[in-house]
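hey so i finally got around to running both of the ones u sent me last week. sorry it took forever, my laptop kept dying halfway thru and i had to restart like 3 times lol. anyway pasting them below in the order u listed, first the sequence line then the structure token line for each. didnt double check formatting much so if smth looks off just lmk and ill redo it

first one:
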Amino acid sequence: MSQPAKSTSHPTWTRRDLNARQAILVACFAMAVVVGLDLADNNRLGFTFSLGFVLIVVTVAMGVDLQSLFQAGVFPPMLLIGTLAVVAMFWPDAIRVNGLAQDAGFIARLIAATIDHGKTLVVGHGLALGIIALRIATAPDRQPSTSST
């Protein structure tokens, strides 16, 4: 005998959103790959780094579950500064900023790199926050009920 079809009010495809920990781990791994590719290509952080950062933080905002949207919202600055800190520590010559002395230390390179990539942070964080706002506004529990009881 065949089973009767189940009628559900939600779509038949399932959402498999990541929790905050999973999204952060995947994002850190992806950022490491982007930095590795950018450093291997031209031995400095450039457009590949900026584009990769924006795509990663937007993907995190789209891929986390609704309970993890706060973490996705505060994550972009931490990802950028953390990544720049690792690069400044292990590959200081990869950070090239106009006016920065060749013998600049870790803190000077980190601050200069953060300022230099400020537009990247503003664009990525702004897009991520916009996506988070859209996800909150269109969350299933915020939609008006169509059933009349």
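and the second one:
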Amino acid sequence: MDEGQESAVKEFFEDFVVAFSSFDGNRVATKFSLPYLAKGPGDACNVFDSRSQLAEYFQSYLDEYHQRECSECRYSNLSVTWLGAECAVASATWDLVDRSGVSVTSWSESYMLSFVGGKALAFAAVDHVGE
């Protein structure tokens, strides 16, 4: 794909890191399009069709992470597979770290991304490896 789309994928993940550090579910929810599918381990599957539902979903995780004294998230092992000109699957490993930089938890996740107006938005995520 073109350099702009590669850049948009990296921008998506970098902006997610910034959004996470706000611990604001509304801010995190802006990274995702509606409807949004979140597939977790086992039978866990959620579909969100409103911004408020999605923000509440993310806020519940952010509150839990904040209670566990996580201060930021970091991604690594970013891999992108293109599905035509306007969609991609991006996979990354996430580490949540505390204020001293020690990993509290980590997992791998894949995102279905679409490109709208030069920006990447996720419309689905699949959790590969639980905590």
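quick thing i noticed on the 2nd:
The chain has a mean pLDDT of 91.
anyway thats it, ttyl
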